[in-house]
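Sample entry follows:

_____
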Amino acid sequence: MKKTVGNGAQPEKEGFETIPSGEPILFPLQVLVYTLRDYWRPHMATRVKAGIEETLPMFQKYRSPFFDLFFSIASFCGSEDFYVFCFPVIYWEFNQKLSLLLLTLFGINVYLSNALKNMFRLPRPLPLKSDKKMVLDNGGYGFPSMHSMNAISLPFFLLAYLTNYELPWYSSNTTLHTIYLIACIWVLWIVGSRLYLAVHSPLDVEGGLFLGLSTLYLFITFGEWVIDWVLYHPNFVSVFSALTFVYVGLVLLHPFPFNKTLAETSGLLGTVYGFQLGSRFNPYVIPRVMSTQFCSVSEAFLLPIVRSVVGMIGVLVIIEISKKIVQHLVLKTLGKDSEMLSAVVAKFLSYVVVTLSLTCIIPLLWHIIGYSSSCVSPNLLQFL
């Protein structure tokens, strides 16, 4: 079996990659972490291989065009693109604090998932192919499943927040039980897509669910306290310094190899950092609570939709412009010899610019042109 060393390690015949020796150690605790990694990884690799060879074929017995589409939609609904679209809409139209909480929890999940992927470097199953086309490509490392982490932590945190952290099974509220059931179905749908589409092994999904429950519990315990400190602490300099220290530090502490995963994580951290800064700065730019006015039923539905569509178009334009400008400036500063480092820095800075625009500039423009107020129909209120 051919093995390689160095950061450019190649996959072995079974699809498993050799962990190179002599990787950079950024802090003393990393020695303990890597020692535990080296002990557990062979056992995990055995389980990954067994799951790919024994469990996943069971799901392939039920392959059909309908289920291909059904679970491909689930895969998209559990992806970063889906969640990143939802957070701005929640921020603009419903609840700024809730949007910030959900995005921060999402950021924790993505960072932890990508960090563990880069640390353990366990492979995914080979891509599935139908008769004529590939159903879903699956690149990168497998453990843990980020989809599974987000699927179980985000909807249940949303449920906990909206019910003031009341446990559904202790309540007699039928609506609450229904929402709880929908959240359970959502988890099964997303997790099932990981196995049906064969983009993760059962161990990846199990690890994702366990880690998602862990981050959910910690975030229910400490998340709102942290976000309240970010939003309402009287000293903005302290907030800015603390957030900068935390997010730049997380980029530096991300495990090697220095690859595309690190650049993606850097962009996500820049998104959460800019979103938190923008939300903290927002009260100084526009009124914290938008006014409410009565309108027709059609306006009550159309105004949020139009505002969200226009806002998302603005965000996409800002993303393209900021990426080009920031990447040019970073490359000019760091030099073409540091291409990967430039990609990491540029991703972080460009998404900070985007989220600052999303949280401050776009709402400010709505306020200036008079479209920042909420719109409620008296006819709809009769049915609520």
Remarks:
- Confidence is low (pLDDT under 50) at residues 1-14, 131-137, 286-291, 377-384.
- The chain has two domains: 70-122+140-232, 238-282+289-384.
- The first strand starts at residue 128 and ends at 129.
- Residues 238-282+289-384 form one domain.
